[in-house]
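Obj: model holo form, ligand = pyridoxal-5'-phosphate.
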Amino acid sequence: MIQEENIQLKQNLETIRDRIRNAALRAGRNPDDIILVGVTKTVEPDIMRQAYDFGLRDFGENRVQEFIRKADIIDSGCRWHIIGRLQTNKVKYLDHRVSLIHSLDREELAKALQARGEKIGKVWDVLVQVNVSGEETKAGVSPENLKDFVSVVSKLGNIHIKGLMTIAPYTEDSEEVRWVFRELRKIAVDIERERIENMNMEFLSMGMSNDFEIAIEEGASIVRVGSAIFGERVYLP
Ligand SMILES: *Cc1c(COP(=O)(O)O)cnc(C)c1O
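Output (holo structure tokens):
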């Protein structure tokens, strides 16, 4: 049983890496410039360790408690990404093991991160989540408010803005969301021109299991892939 899972996981990872590589080459990009974050929410640590053995080094979690529990179990040598909506009252549990927070979307959260950063002596690398599609249910700063938001956050010494993140609407035909990725890239280029201190646009985190190739064609430097590697998630109550 374990053995079968193992083979499937290995194949999935190889397939995703091939697809990343091909999408990058199609777009005239260097495949090595794209970071694969394996989204491991609800995935058990023993499976994550297998993925680690198959070369996966970046893990993405959307719940702080789950991150803490797993980071305590899994040895160092991997990078932890906080990718989902981050509740302000959970910030106090974040620690030095966090590599990148993908989902900064409001000032209140920035302030909490600043306070926590001062307390533990950490400068957080963060991406600002942008709600490009304008869906009401989606978190993220609106494109119109982005410049003001970034200007405020960039004054906080324990936060380093390293780029932008977005989540595209779910559609059957992922071509329909190509414009969302293209738009995020354009927004990043525009904001970089503002030359705001303490900010750069090193990373664009966009693309999930059903649309990561399109995101790469449109300039993603980080893709967040869960179910295409680990299988469909089963949420227990
Ligand atoms: C769950 C999740 C993903 C991965 O989704 P899949 O469709 O399983 O690849 C990526 N990003 C965020 C923010 C998520 O919550």
